[in-house]
């Protein structure tokens, strides 16, 4: 122990001033080795002989320990039969150790006293610091004074005194506990922002559990809340108990007080039960079950209440009271190195439950499963999808259920004409309760050959063939005509060939290294019977930098871009110390004038496409900027303008996101114009305090979307708050305002107080 920490240790019952950890008693036989050095060779020999005890025969099942011994000086008193080791005394036994200024062993009383800067370390890395500790001759701790314990999993315990009982438990009196650091970054002492004081603390080494008697929470030195029945574990594992309540005030529910009880049923299972009380509506309960099995893990979360529900914009409850709730379950299981199962279930009783009770703001809930087999040469997926819409006015009967969705791919091990061949088979069945039903199956093969020329060009040749079979009925229930396809059975064939050439150039520029890579791609395909089959998975078509050089710029399988086209562009990158700049721009030219499957406004409907690009700028971890754009080929009007920027560090930063789609596409819901602004800022001050705010704003006006009634600036949600956060404590107050009202999820203000203590499982 350093001299600097000595004053802290002497008053450790009042302050938590040193990093240390809680020990386990060292049991077993004692066999000390000879000292490293001694002041007198003869005395040392006598003392060493005296230090070697006559050990009793080991008890059956008990392991005898060998203790290695080191000290600067060693002395033996023949009359009192006392051995004294002084100066840098070290006792080691396997992965346990004791360090002290002096160790005194009374052979008659069979007691060992370690005094002066004592440090006791157990096999788990827990440590004890004290001025003196009494040990038995079997190396079990007894009485201690002015001690400090630091738990291996974090947290420190200081006490005025402690002793070990006959049952192995350690009882501390006048104790204090905290998970806060007691030194700042420069090594200076600091007071913990919170601590738990207790009259008695009982540590059970068998269960790795610490129980507090007469516990009281102190925050910045002020005694605030009694904590009866408080207990923590020394190994960092969770322990059953109540969580600190949350406090919230909202327009929909009034004052809300919520609390939970956590139950640890086993090392791999736990259960959390929650209750929510409101001043303006009936209570709600929740439960969360988590289970880690030998092949995977899953969790099930549920909410339930019995309250009135508003299903439209009239403001009138649809009934006096309805059972309402939400179920969310997910998991993943790995049956073998190849086979796995992933699943998720999300179901709500009605469309406004999640928003009203502030559980989620999603406008759709997706349930799915996916059984996969993956090896080095093949991939198999058997999946299913079901979606529940939460959008008011959207008919659930028009939302599809996809079951099954089967996809199989195999890559041939042997090259074919020098290239790689991948085979694919896919089938899909889509059903709607009040809409068009579709079944699809196809099989195909793709061949890729990649070569590097002597001049440095990267040339890729691709060939693809595919045969499709579709069956469709009730096509008249699909409002958009180009999505329907022909009713009944339809077949089509797809053939495609492509050549792609990249030519990278590397050199020095602007004090760094630049890479300039022009790229040229030619894709050709005969006419494809696209409009004869339905479009279920390829509706959101839009020219972007991400699909500029794709073989098929539609996002799914139901539509395939036919004809011949030439795509050209370049990538440019610059690397210099601290900086990285990357830019992409390109355009395509179609040799086919018939572009009926590509709506006007997507940037692809004419022979010459729009210009698309992306620019990324990085400066260390301080500036991150990404900008995506699409410019009209005729007048360079901005058809897509999107950027995301972050400036600042972890504590103080500003984030801005902006998106504007100016495509002028009418009649297609998937391709409507939108304009949105997102912003967030956080400003740190006074070391641990911060102010933060965020907002989402709809900038779409009537000219962009006639269905909108806004004037081009409509706040969706704003948030403002203040928070305190140090290494072990976090609390704050948040104000949020919602500007849209959906059923019983009313617009208005919500205030929330949050509070969290490290290591106590408090939110």
Give an overview in words.
It is a single chain. The protein is mainly beta and 763 residues long. The chain is built from three helices and 42 strands. The strands form two sheets. The protein has a 26-stranded antiparallel beta barrel. Strands 1, 2, 3, 4, 5, 6, 7, 8, 9, 10, 11, 12, 13 and 14 form a 14-stranded antiparallel sheet that branches. The longest helix is centred in the first third of the chain and has 11 residues, at 41-51. Belongs to the LptD family.
Please describe the structure with a list of short key phrases separated by commas or semicolons.
LptD, disordered N terminus, about 775 residues, OstA-like_N, 26-stranded antiparallel β-barrel, mainly beta
* Secondary-structure-derived class: mainly beta
Counted beta strands: 42
Give the CA-CA distance, first to last residue.
36 Å
Number of helices: 3
Q: Please tell me the overall pLDDT.
A: 84
Main β sheet profile: 26 strands, antiparallel, barrel
What is the multimeric organization of the chains shown? single chain
Shape: elongated
Strand content: over 45%
Q: Pick out the low-confidence regions.
A: 1-63
What's the Cα radius of gyration? 36 Å
Helix content: under 10%
Pfam family, one: LptD
Family: Belongs to the LptD family.
Keywords: Cell outer membrane, Membrane, Signal
Function: Involved in the assembly of lipopolysaccharide (LPS) at the surface of the outer membrane.
